[in-house]
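Case study B.
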Amino acid sequence: MASLSRGDVEHVAHLARLGLTDDEVERLQGQLNHILDQYAKLTALDTDAIAPTAQTIELESILRDDEPRPSFSVDQALANAPETHEGRVVVAAILGGD
Amino acid sequence: MSGDLTRLTAHAMAVALRSGETSSADLAAAHLGRIEAEDHGLHAWLAVDPPAVLAAAREADAALARARAEGPAALAALHPLHGVPVALKDLVSVRGMQCTAGSRILEGYRAPYDAHVTERLRAAGAVILGKTNMDEFAMGSSTEHSAYGPTSNPWDLDRVPGGSSGGSAAAVAAFETPLALGTDTGGSIRQPGSLCGIVGMKPTYGRVSRYGIVAYASSLDQVGPFARDVRDAAALLHAIAGRDARDSTSAPVPVPDGLLHLPASDDEAAAGLRGLRLGLPREYFVEGTEAGTEARLREAVAVLEASGAHVDEVSLPHTDYGLAAYYIVAPAEASANLARYDGIRYGLSVRVGDVLGDYLATRGRGFGPEAKRRIMLGTYALSAGYYEAFYGKAQKVRTLIKGDFDAVWASGVDAIVAPTSPTVAWKLGAKLDDPVAMYLSDACTLPVNMAGLPGVSIPAGLSDGLPVGLQLIGRPWSELDLLRIARGYEGITATAAWRTVEPHGLAELRAVGCPTPTERAAALGAGDR
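Model:
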């Protein structure tokens, strides 16, 4: 099975938006490769004719009526936000410039 | 009422509340007193708010007084949990309370609403005692992955309580609460129940709404009860189970009232075992199963047979693939669920000046080592080029695992009996450096989650003075049948000598200057990296 290089670990960390220290990258490389080794067992199993299972209960397309219901006030929704401004969440600028 | 109120079962509390022998306020005060005096050395709790607890208890007492004035019918209409204290794992939302999920990234967050199970407990009149410790985002088997420090096992304070719902299990075992809720994604209720010598049940996937529960792996997570006996666990399940429109995976399956009427008599309970067909899966005595665990299991099987149950060996041939498949499916779902922690809307926020930098810094600092491992595994397993090889493959293996159980049910077996955990509780730190060894402790529980089935762990004796759990696994929606069997086993072993043994750590917890689990772990050289 695949083996992760240091560059692979850094790439996956970037995809996951995880800022890792050099030490963490090194430890994770060893640990993840050890865990991936355990996955190798699955390749021995012939599953070509097997359908995947995503969930186990026989419920499908559960819908409910689209009726308006009470929800949070703006204050409630923002109560946990680290930084707010005039009823909005403050985020760093995504596009460059002032 | 004379005597220590914290030693009562919830059903005994219910009787005493109705007769007026005790009050909900007295029950709350007794448990708060024990937590205050003894939790220093156990660290089962992350949040307890005594004034709020006492206020809720007084409200329950007022409702009791009104019912008593109205007459016997009104008193009988109260739920058995009315006025009884319940602990919640710190990933169950309670409006206005912290909900850390054991993580730094949710430090300071206050839940803006009640989880469905919280609403149901309030409606039943239960008194929410506080929030219990857990592995970060329910990822772990020892509660050592909590960002707020580990919890000890009441049976030996140098050992882990199991996990991830270790705080809930330890609190129940140490008489700090009669009842607690946990969540079980791969064994996180049953395994700590086993290691702490109490009853813990994972219901059928879809039995209990997940609305307001911090998500780990959404196709596997279920909420379930901890208690010191089977009747109490059944009553707590009854209170929380049932369809909720806000969780589309909660099933419109009726919740049987029989959960409130399990036999009180040991003999009547034991009589229900006659003629049952039980299956003992040969693959569940996995590599690394301790001799003492296997011995207690074989003895339990002998006792069940002596009571008229037929126990036959059965085969679940894909068991050996369960661990690998689980550790693809669960981290994959976790990596998606944990993407929401962005440091913008709630929780820890580390600002460095640009959006990407904020994400990296917040998540890098906010998540602990096990959460990072699983986010990395899941992200990798779902990434371009690897999806089919990992996630697709694991979902097919999931089909095979489920098929194993279906074949056993089709053969006429009523329930499966198996070990809950291959081992008894281990020393703090013993498995922290080896994630794969830690994962192996869930080998007997996680196939049940993969198949969406109900499972319950009940105490089945001691090995070297530490609890061993017996796991019962049933068909979908068979919780009542499973709990009847569990109650039957409880009945036939009611006078067993091991049932009179108390957790050995209780006396030490009362001592002044009892070390904290963090101090014990340091003395044992434990460190998570």
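Residues 387-410 of chain B form the longest helix (24 residues). The remaining cases will be described in the next quarterly update.
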